[in-house]
Amino acid sequence: MGCTAAQLCFRCDSLSSFGRLGASKQPFPGCFLSLDKSSESGGRAPREQDLLLAAAYVSDAQYNRNIPFETSPQAIRLYYFYNHWTMQAATYFFICIDLSLALFEEPALFPLPFLATSIVEVLCLTAFLGRLVHFAKVTPQMVFWKDTKNICIMLTIVLTLIDLIVYGSLEAVNIHSVRWSRALRPVFLINFPESRQIRRAFRSIRNTLPDILYVFLLFLFSVLMFSLMALKLFGDRGLKTVEGSPYFTNILDIAFELYVLVTTANSPDVMMPAYDFNGWYSLYFITYIIINTYIFMSVFLAVVYNNYRKHLKNEIRKLAYLKRHKMIEAFNLLKVQVGTEFVVKEAQWRRLAKVVAPDISSSHLELLLRVSDEGQKGHVDKMNFLRLADLLNIQVVTINIKRHPLEAWMPRVYQSSASLLVQRMVRHRVFVWVYDVIILVNAIFIALDERNPFISYAEWLFLSLYIIEILLKLYTYEPRSYFGRRQFWNWFDVLIIIAALVATVANTTIQSARKYSSQQILDIVLILRILRLLRVIVSIERFRVIVTTLINIGPAMLTFGGLVLVVYYVFAIIGMEAFHSKVQFFDPNFTAPDALVCGNPALKDSAFARNRYCKNNFNDLASAFILLMELTVVNQWHVLAGGFALVTHQAAKLYFVGFHIVVVILIVNIFIAFILEAFFVAYSLEKSEVETAIEKKIQELGVGIQEEAVQDGKLVDNMDTRDSGFSGDDGDNKRKALKGLYFRIASKKYRTVDALLQQMFESEIAPEDEGPPLDEILNFSPSDICPKNPSFENSA
Amino acid sequence: MGCTAAQLCFRCDSLSSFGRLGASKQPFPGCFLSLDKSSESGGRAPREQDLLLAAAYVSDAQYNRNIPFETSPQAIRLYYFYNHWTMQAATYFFICIDLSLALFEEPALFPLPFLATSIVEVLCLTAFLGRLVHFAKVTPQMVFWKDTKNICIMLTIVLTLIDLIVYGSLEAVNIHSVRWSRALRPVFLINFPESRQIRRAFRSIRNTLPDILYVFLLFLFSVLMFSLMALKLFGDRGLKTVEGSPYFTNILDIAFELYVLVTTANSPDVMMPAYDFNGWYSLYFITYIIINTYIFMSVFLAVVYNNYRKHLKNEIRKLAYLKRHKMIEAFNLLKVQVGTEFVVKEAQWRRLAKVVAPDISSSHLELLLRVSDEGQKGHVDKMNFLRLADLLNIQVVTINIKRHPLEAWMPRVYQSSASLLVQRMVRHRVFVWVYDVIILVNAIFIALDERNPFISYAEWLFLSLYIIEILLKLYTYEPRSYFGRRQFWNWFDVLIIIAALVATVANTTIQSARKYSSQQILDIVLILRILRLLRVIVSIERFRVIVTTLINIGPAMLTFGGLVLVVYYVFAIIGMEAFHSKVQFFDPNFTAPDALVCGNPALKDSAFARNRYCKNNFNDLASAFILLMELTVVNQWHVLAGGFALVTHQAAKLYFVGFHIVVVILIVNIFIAFILEAFFVAYSLEKSEVETAIEKKIQELGVGIQEEAVQDGKLVDNMDTRDSGFSGDDGDNKRKALKGLYFRIASKKYRTVDALLQQMFESEIAPEDEGPPLDEILNFSPSDICPKNPSFENSA
């Protein structure tokens, strides 16, 4: 992809873009356990571009140096404005609007006239165009026009407008045509700079294609060979399927049936007639399943996974070198010669830090300088300067205990022996166990019949027990720590309980007022009640590890959500154009003669109608999405495909086969590859420690605290001991000098596979290594990084 | 596992055991492209034990040194006899007989009286006992009794005998009891020393269990929570399934249905009633599928794969160190002091080599000595001695062209210009293309209706064209090279064609004689005809690579065959005891009233009967295996489980769920892990080269030829150029001195993941490294080898 520094930066920071500028305005000091979300994304490198811009701004003396973009204050302001979260939120808002238009257009869930939807669409297109023009303003022209993304967006806007006009004018003279440009809408989602992750997934798929193509051809060849064999073996036997239709007589039908068998969807059924005829024929099907279902499908996974790994490594290497490259550029802008080496003067360094992080406290700045300028020589050398971005990303905490507000307001009461007893009780393990038992008893009550009045009273009892628990915890622990940003389970607890309380009260009110209970509210209450049971898991350490890993990879899984959304959307639009209103769903109580054949006589006696799949149709976007989800799960997809083939044409099966290939063979395998990789990284992290150069240095200076020391549940207890440990440690001047400021070191807490891998890679580049030139970085190909001599550890 | 050197050797060489002793008796010299199968298994270390024994034998002066087993000539003979292929074949034969007894016992495919089967079983048990006694003779007592394998076998023999006696005497008084010991039969297959691979797979499963258990519990918890939710959400709605039964009203049924949904087997069906009732309920099922089907199943794969890798690495490290350990022991037996270092004298070394490989040619021995004793100092130092086993495993080829026999017999005719033209023609690419086209045309003819006489004549034409092709090739290429051991596709071609020829002739004869064509022969002819099409793949390079990889991992896949066999056998025996004759299959043309309900009125209106699954039953071993295969494929397994639950008891579903957990969650995932690993190794090999120390040395001495230079199809052509290259190379004295003997270096041809990984690992142990002491080696645990600092290449 041809694009340079200025533009790549938008890629790099897209993930954390919502929180990014907000982050640089957030105050660090004073708050224990305050978590800065963007810095949490670890090695994601959110600040290099800011630093480079700031360096250009600070070094106004050297204003005319050759850097590839404008650095006038306006340009910088424009750039900051482009990256401002409101602008990005607006873009996403318009993308959502644009995509959800399909809900209102024919075939619609909520029909709106064509005029209304087309006006909204034009509005969205204008917004996209505006965003693009803004982007062009902050990017060098050459770079802008070289980028295929921008061209894509413009082309899509033009095509959509043409389609709108053509469709509108044809509609005006009552000719119905196809709104084909609707399938292009996901282009906006993919191509806006903020969707780097989705693009990466698509690139990953594109790179996998050549490798997978050969395996796929071989696989097709195998299926065809088996089809030919089946035709010869079973075609003339006069066998019948369960439904009485002839069995394996047409080569195309056979090929389709055997393709379905690969997905296992028709597994024993397709074999039964031949098996009933002669037991030995089962060998044919067993051979087929072993070769095509087990071996070929595993090979597909292997190919996809292998490419995913290669590609991931390449992207990470690229990012790491780009980051290094930008920092060197910034250094070159600010450097002055002192003795034999080039350095950055302390004053310049301070100005730079202040520009990049305007709200940084002076003690924090002092600490950073201390780490950067070890010898206190009044300047920062190149190696230390290159680490500045990482340094700014490391979280700084102040070691001071926050006292409980109640302690501040009424110290006597709070410190009374009764109060202390309560606090000790709440902190005790038994307190947790008691509540675990309560939850389990609650589970049994939930399973019982709730129309029994005794049980519905019990529900109130449980609810109040939970509320008491929360109040007791708030009494014991400092509320702001209790609701710390990473205290996922505390938030979960409180939200579930409050929601349950509100819903239960609402339901009771409605019930007593109108003698009628609202189904929706009741459902919500039920789900909330059962979700409460989740808390038992958290008490068991082994479970918590697994759940934490799953929650940690959650955000990255949203990438797949985006990917799936794009593919589903395109297939849904095509499906809606091709199949809408061919299949109708009638209310089960409705006794129309057509209800059993989904309103289409062609479905008479079909498996589709017999299984009552009428509601699986393409009559609106929501139904189409649910149908596509069912196809993704694979089972019975041949029945669905067969049904739609009956109401249209046999060729419709190609649509379903295509969907299977794209979604199940490509996307689901990438998803599995992603989960595998995430778990492997989690496993290898469990046993080892990755330290970056900075982390080592901070440890040497003795100004870091390990993340684990300030972990979840035990935070306040830990804090106490830690504090007393420090007060006994008064002799340590170095620590005192830094006024209780410490770096939080998060070595075991990398949230994403990416961040961790980047850390690993960076810890392997030598500090002097300036990396390859920019052009080369941008053209890295995955095959470059294959090790010449794979090592043992490496390959197994 | 407590066991020492002598016994572990049987483990190490089990895979290649059939060919091993045969191999050491095979003559090396003279034959170009002769492949020694045991040496092909790469780093499998077939000779260390032989070397150690031989060293003890050679060093008779030092006879009384402390080595852990007897080395009298008888003992060695007994040991060789134990390892002789006839003995091993006999053991496998008896294992097969024992396992296949289930075919003849009630419920039998071919019923035999109890007396007959029990006599055969006693015979097998005697054979196993004999083998065990023999093993005890060649193993130190202490070691023998410490080994759980031997205890297992003895216990199983005793238990089987008890069961036989009890069952027999009860049968005599007409009380029918259960032959429970039949489920123990696979113990013999697992526990005989030759089944190292299957045991390893079982160990791998056992080691995975603790990790997987926690994920599984969490998964169960999730399923139960969703069940509870489903009960509350749908239980009171009065919904009905397609079959009219109440929908989601019983928590146990719900849990089973949701477990089935994880396997996707009832995918849209289980959702349809709720979805028809209210579209929003689909969200519940989509959430369930994402969490349990996609995420949890991927996590299972990740856990299994991770453990598989760890375990594999550990085993390989163990093997490599054991090998090193044995070679050091052998060195210590033979060493004498020369100057400051210990060495082995040339005379001793020669005797040793002669004992280990009695048929080694003197020029080959010279070459080995040359590599081992570089400075020609008359003795071999320790480092070189340690490599002896590898050195003996490396294949030696003589570089001389074999002339075509026809050329020898009638040189004038063979070298005539017409003959040369034919040869050039056959070697030309176009010749291959022409035959590819012929095959494709043949494919079309096969697809056409064969009752047309023109088409059946065409079949004769194609057959003769193929025969002509083979004859031409044999005329052009040297026949022994054409049928070289690795010329898989040549063998394939010829066998397919000859078989097709024989079968077609036989069919025609029968047809013309009796006006009746035998179905079996016709089927075979058809399959052979279609298999011919496979040859097209070989012409396309990219396909050949994939196919070759698949064929290469084929033998290792047989391990999984063994594993699956063991698990299937146990489940089949249990299933046969529990479900036999509950479900009957009637011929489709038979019109008994019970035929439609499989002879069991309990199945009336069940999905089992409706789908005509009557032949899926446990009435004999073959049917049970096919049914278990269908359960492995997963689809419709709930229908099968439901059917058997109806005819027995709802608890029968546990059997099916258990089977799913064992086979699909554990074994199929290990299979996928294995394929992934094999492909990754194949990929990393494609781009890199692994060289062992010896290979480097051989290269330095200039006495190696790269494997690729003498590859498949092009072998004879290559030979020519290579030969002329050498004749122009006369000045090279080193080569001449070695009389045309060269080492074949197989660096890119490691057949198995194991062999390759062992090579990689060995190339990483320093030559001086003596490895940890034996006890430690035997107790290596996988967690020892986790890298302290995972590297970037490593983890991604």
Explained architecture:
Two copies of one chain form a homodimer. With 796 residues, chain A is mainly alpha-helical. Chain A folds into four domains: 68-192; 199-394 and 753-774, no CATH class; 406-539, Four Helix Bundle (Hemerythrin (Met), subunit A) (Up-down Bundle); 552-686, no CATH class. The first copy, chain A, is built from 38 helices and six strands. In chain A, a hairpin with a 2-residue loop joins strand 1 (336-338) and strand 2. In chain A, helix 11 (196-234) crosses helix 12 (251-262). The first copy, chain A, is globular, with a radius of gyration of 31 Å. At the A-B interface, helix 11, helix 13, helix 14, helix 22 and helix 26 of A face helix 11, helix 13, helix 14, helix 22 and helix 26 of B.
Question: Key features?
Answer:
homodimer; 796 residues; mainly alpha; Four Helix Bundle (Hemerythrin (Met), subunit A); 4 domains; 3-stranded antiparallel beta sheet; 3-stranded mixed beta sheet; 6 strands; 3% strand; globular; disordered N terminus
